[in-house]
Amino acid sequence: MSRIISFKGRLDSGDIENIPLHTQNGSIGYKITKFQIIGVSENQTSEGTCKIFKTQPTTATSSIDFSDNRLIGVATFGDSSATPGNASAIVLFDNEIFNQDIYLTWLDGFANKINYYIELEQMDLALDETTVATLKDIRNND
């Protein structure tokens, strides 16, 4: 059985935020279904990158590397013209199932804050799925 859970919050430029999802036995899995960012005010001028990782990064960066197996979502906000609603692009790796905490980063060239909203599909994992997800998480920590 699956259900949708959501998280929302605000990040300062340079922040790394933990969203705790881990369980004792890893039998609950998650998949991102929605990821949105929006500035904190209508006329905010921002140019930044918000990313979701499966392991904690050491710093927030603006570079995007799709070959990074820890990266599961990216949102860019390039609103230098201050035109609300037309300024963001979202990329999700929606087939990625994970069973551990995730981490959000935000880095903005103007040092502004950003609001985020994430929806996750929560599902029960069979023993073999739990093992695969846990092994991926262990491998991502190296």
Could you give a quick summary of the protein structure above?
With 142 residues, this protein is mainly beta.
Structure description:
By secondary structure, the protein is mainly beta. The protein has a single domain (2-140), classed as Jelly Rolls (Sandwich), CATH 2.60.120.340. It contains one helix and eight strands, in the order ββββββββα. The strands form two sheets. Strands 2-7-4-5-6 form a five-stranded antiparallel beta sheet, with no helix packed on it. A three-stranded antiparallel beta sheet has the order 1-8-3, with no helix packed on it. The protein is elongated and about 50 Å long. The model has no long low-confidence stretch (mean pLDDT 85).
- Give the neighbour order of strands across the main sheet: 2-7-4-5-6
CATH class: Mainly Beta
SSE order in H/E notation?
EEEEEEEEH
Query: Radius of gyration, rounded?
Result: 15 Å
What's the number of extended β-strand segments? 8
- What is the percentage of strand-forming residues? over 45%
Chain-wise SSE layout:
Blueprint: E1 2-11, E2 16-19, E3 28-39, E4 47-53, E5 71-78, E6 88-92, E7 102-108, E8 114-124, H1 127-140
Antiparallel strand pairs: 1-8, 2-7, 3-8, 4-5, 4-7, 5-6
Descriptive terms for the model:
single chain, 142 residues, mainly beta, Jelly Rolls, 5-stranded antiparallel beta sheet, 3-stranded antiparallel beta sheet, 1 helix, elongated
